[in-house]
Amino acid sequence: MARWKALPEELDPQVKEFASQLRRLVDRSGLSIAAVADRTGYSKTSWERYLNGRLLPPKGAVLALADVTGTNAGHLTTMWELAERAWSRSEMRHDMTMEAIRISQARAALGELGQTPAPAKGGRPGRRTTTDPAAPPAGIGFGGTGVGGAGAPANGAGGRTPAGAPQDFLISPQRNGGGPGPGSADGQRRRRKTTMFLAGVVGALLVVAAAVLLTGLGGTDKDPVAKDKPKPRPATSAPELPAGVKCAGDDCTGEDPEAMGCGGEFAETTASATVGTAFVEVRYSKTCGAAWARITQATVGDKVQIASGAAAADRPGAQNGLVDADRDAYTPMVAVPKAADAKACATLVSGVKGCTAQ
Description:
This protein is of the alpha+beta class. The protein is built from seven helices and nine strands, in the order αααααααβββββββββ. Strands 1, 2, 3, 6 and 7 form a five-stranded antiparallel sheet that branches. A four-stranded antiparallel sheet has the order 5-4-8-9, with no helix packed on it. The two termini are 34 Å apart.
């Protein structure tokens, strides 16, 4: 078998030990990952993720591997439970980190929306506006002079500001009334919001009007051209395939059953035979409408072949497989209407030949 890739450094030690144990079981069995996938009912892609530490296998996959490799299921289940707890802890830490990042981003966004008071003339914030209802109009003193200092004489008849009166009696036009002036930042923001709201309303009305026109308000009887327009035919499409399945029928001929997602849970053995020391099977996928041959307990150089019933005589449409490194191999697929139309044959290096019965 090919050498395993190094497990990710960030893996929890418990998960890493469990993944290493799964690798040892597969190595000891002498099966390829494709064969493990075919026998356990879990796809080849899934097993590659399990064995490379990118995903923790479900308990069902672990029990299926124990059955295929003849391993004590109790011991392997205990290791899986420990790895599952470690995996959950790692996911929890990751979720907490991501939550903290989201909270920090939300706080930063809220900070950007915060409002600060507009500076008054001279670069300093304006004074608090008086709320005294008896206060005189902005910029006008008691005597109408418009000027009043803190040290002015307290002679109301002389038109002066009373002595000791606070300077807030003299209110600048920008602060009169306690509200933002038309040129303030708040006023500009309000105008922008109002403009955007009105633009949104106008856009919505345009969309509604377009929809009414496109649906032909009043029917097509008033439109002589509409009567002559050809009506589109309903589109026809092939039946939807399950997730992961990539072909059906003739499109599967010559394709790898594992790569096309036709193996695992979508396949079953419909015929088998013992040829010499090897075991030959017809694997059939009703979902894909195709079959392929598999040989196990074989020797390097043994050959296996699959053909449909129509091609069984001269076998022009047969697909072939060769045992090269592992003790098993399988062929590409052939499209067959039903499982009984497929026939698998093996030719061993010892010269022994044999086929499954149709």
